[in-house]
Automatic annotation (TrEMBL):
Residues 377-438 form a coiled coil. It comes from Glossina morsitans morsitans (Savannah tsetse fly). The keyword Transport does not apply. This is PX domain-containing protein. It holds the Pfam family PX. The lineage of its organism: Eukaryota, Metazoa, Ecdysozoa, Arthropoda, Hexapoda.
């Protein structure tokens, strides 16, 4: 390879380092690279010229201390509370108070709060996902939009609070889901020091970049639908020749865990529904016993029936609390991990996409080398120059406007592209392994804490039920 090619390769390797968690805000003397769009994967195999993989930007050395702050020395706690309805009618929306406590140096303060709406949460997820999933990082998914619940809140009278009446359960479920999502994101050592994420928590500005997918029907939604169809077809039809047994084992493990968690979640939802029905039936028993006590002429029996009604009424409340425990402590934890397994599959698919780019680049390089070799053997000078130009394809790259320069032309040899794609494949493979190790530690700890909390909560409720029945026994024995 020529010295010029070696220099180009060194420049590419420097550009290829990683994502800049400062979003490109760096020293004025640095030249920002123009970010390129990655085409649909399904079209890669049919493309005659390799499409450039998205350029990675640098993590400055000054931020590495924050990125590596997952040692326990730093903490961040986020609470989502006080849902409030803003406006009236179908244009209204809910805002949530997001309160943060942290000692991470990247934040300007240690205790602060701001108001955010649901689309803001979707917006910060989209920003983080667009930057980090393609690097193999696991970005926690945001809660899905609930059209029915949102509509009920929008059409409710202005004077009624969104957290009362018929909407109380749905509003609390959304608030809890948003709190879990933002805290899971904050536990990631890289995501929590991203400038967009910090701005989401710290900024007092009302308008933030929001997700474009909050609308039920929109042009963007249609485009996303077609893209998802293309991605799904590509996942089904393309089979990667895996050379690392770790990924084969891990993909099988993720698929098995995901399938079993799906079954567990379905059973938990059924349990929640049944427990709610049990609570309602217990309440009916209480009302019936109370009505019977008023009609009973026997004084002792009437008093016992009245005591039974009080006991059943108390147990009804406990049954409802048990249902909430089933839902918020266990069922929602399982649901969150179903979403996280989806994020893991997305990271694995990004690796497959990079492998496709690499193989396509290799095929194109081999093809052009063979063409040039045939022309040399046939002494076709007219075709030889054309083949040489195909091997050394050029593209334009914008130079920073602060230098008042026009578009510069930079030579990128196909050989450099192959090495560049191979490097990215190796880097995303290593990153996924690191992310999975962190995820497994977090998952085991999270499930352990959730199960212990759930068991303790259920035992406390059962003990309370026993105490209620023990208190009722004297009333039953007084019947003569």
């Amino acid at each position: 390879m020529s010295m010029e090619s070696v220099d180009d390769l060194h420049d590419l390797q420097r550009d290829f380092a990683d994502v800049d968690i400062n979003n490109g805000v760096s020293n004025i003397d640095d030249e920002p690279d123009e970010e390129e769009e990655v085409p649909a994967v399904a079209a890669v195999a049919n493309n005659n010229s390799i499409n450039e993989v998205v350029m990675h930007r640098r993590i400055s050395s000054g931020n590495m201390q924050d990125v590596l702050s997952d040692s326990g020395d730093y903490f961040i706690e986020i609470a989502v509370s006080e849902p409030q309805k803003v406006g009236d009618g179908m244009s209204s929306y809910l805002t949530y108070k997001v309160t943060t406590r942290t000692n991470i140096p990247k934040f300007k303060r240690t205790d602060f709060s701001t108001l955010r709406r649901f689309s803001d949460f979707l917006g910060i997820h989209d920003l983080l996902a667009s930057k980090y999933i393609k690097l193999g990082k696991i970005v926690p998914p945001a809660p899905s939009k609930n059209i029915l619940g949102t509509t009920k809140v929008k059409i409710s009278p202005q004077q009624s609070e969104p957290g009362t009446g018929v909407n109380v359960e749905w509003v609390e479920q959304r608030r809890a889901a948003l709190e879990r999502f933002i805290n899971r994101t904050a536990q990631h050592p890289v995501l929590r020091v991203d400038l967009d994420f910090i701005n989401f928590l710290e900024s007092d500005q009302v308008e933030l970049p929001r997700a474009v997918n909050t609308a039920t029907l929109s042009g963007a939604a249609v485009v996303r639908l077609f893209n998802k169809v293309g991605e799904t077809v590509n996942k089904i039809t393309y089979k990667m020749d895996e050379n690392d047994p770790w990924f084969d084992e891990k993909i099988t493990e993720v698929e098995n865990l995901d399938a079993n968690l799906q079954r567990l979640y379905a059973a938990l939802k059924s349990l929640v529904t049944t427990r709610k029905e049990l609570a309602n039936l217990t309440g009916l028993v209480a009302k019936s016993a109370a009505m019977l006590s008023t009609c009973e002429e026997h004084t002792g029996l009437s008093r016992a029936l009245s005591s039974l009604a009080d006991t059943e009424e108390k147990i009804e409340i406990l049954r409802a609390e048990q249902s909430n425990s089933d839902f918020y402590i266990l069922a929602e934890c399982v649901k969150d991990y179903l979403g996280l397994f989806g994020a893991i599959k997305s990271a694995f698919h990004e690796r497959v996409k990079v492998f496709q780019y690499w193989q396509n680049a290799q095929v194109q390089l081999t093809k052009r080398r063979e063409n040039r070799g045939r022309y040399e053997m046939a002494n076709r000078t007219d075709k030889l120059e054309q083949a040489h130009q195909e091997v050394e394809e050029v593209r334009k790259r914008k130079v920073c406007q602060k230098f008042n320069a026009d578009n510069a032309v930079i030579k990128f040899q196909w050989q450099v592209k192959v090495q560049r794609c191979q490097q990215q494949f190796e880097e995303i493979s290593a990153e996924i392994k690191k992310e999975m190790e962190r995820f497994e530690l977090s998952r085991v700890k999270d499930f352990k804490n959730s199960i212990i909390r759930y068991i303790e909560d259920q035992m406390a409720h059962q003990q309370q039920i026993i105490s209620y029945w023990e208190a009722f026994i004297p009333s039953a024995r007084e019947i003569v």
